Amino acid sequence: MIRSAILLSLIYLIVPSATASALSVPLWPEGRIPGFNAGQTVPSLEVVLPGDRTNDALLIIAPGGSYMKWCEWEGKCVAYFNKRGMATALLKYRTPRPLGAAKHISAWQDAQRAVRICRRFAKEWKVNPERIFFMGFSAGGNLTLLAATSSQTPSYAKVDDVDDLPCHVNGAIACYPAYVLSDCRNFDGSNRQKGNDLGLLMDPIFKFDTKTPPMCFLHGDADAHSPMGSVRAYHKLRTMSIPAELHVFSERKHADLPRGTWQELVWTWIERNRK
Questions:
Q1: Can you tell me the distance from the alpha carbon of 54 to that of 234, in angstroms, rounded to the nearest whole number?
Q2: How many CA atoms lie within 13 A of 243 on its CB side?
Q3: What confidence score (pLDDT) does residue 2 get?
């Protein structure tokens, strides 16, 4: 059972508060990961619950890596939010990309399941189940857009009772999201036209459904994964009257947000949107 696995995997780490705890949480029952490919990593959530909590929100964080590997350093931002008294869940979704399937499908399944797991244990973790935020970088930013805009589209068939819970998020932060516009070949790789053609289309996997929440975008203006993807998503949210915030940083390339500044912007946005 998932609950037993969590209790067995409880460990204590050196985190901002002496009473903080860390949990390694499996996403799926053993042997029941949908579409699992041999050679993929086994997905999990690495949850940190600060002892000196300042709010009842939880932030799920998805690093990038082209859906092929993990950029470990992008996950280190959990410490910033833990020091602010916020619970975090680092999503270790499956990599590399699945064989013979869409590049994002394994990660999307893991993301939807991760949100449900967080709702399942919201009471135990002292988290408000309607204050779950999702943040990701690059491919993880692409996954963030998926989690935020397409929660009403099932990415897998029900595995157990956890899947009866909803998988929408209550706010999302997409940091330099990749593969958004149609000048990426098959919505993959960098933008061949810099995303500048107004006739470009957004990937239809982003449904912008009825549960799409407020969003915040951060992107570098010199990014080969064009900031126009963030601009177009921001514009779409505006047309739906969904609150959104957009930060584009001059002369910044991919994965090069201004250190310190971007975390403060995200924290301010979360504080404003978690109430």
A1: 29
A2: 9
A3: 53
Q: What is the domain partition of the chain in residue ranges?
A: 2-273
Which CATH class, in words, describes the domain spanning 2-273? alpha beta
- Average pLDDT score over residue span 148-173: 98
Burial 213-231 (b: 16+ CB within 10 A, else e): bbbbbbbbeebebbbbbbb
Confidence of residue 186 (pLDDT cuts 50, 70, 90): very high
More confident residue, 39 or 11: 39
Please say whether the beta carbons of 15 and 48 come within 8 A.
Answer: yes
Q: How many CB atoms lie within 10 A of CB 160?
A: 12
Confidence check: pLDDT of 37 > 60: yes
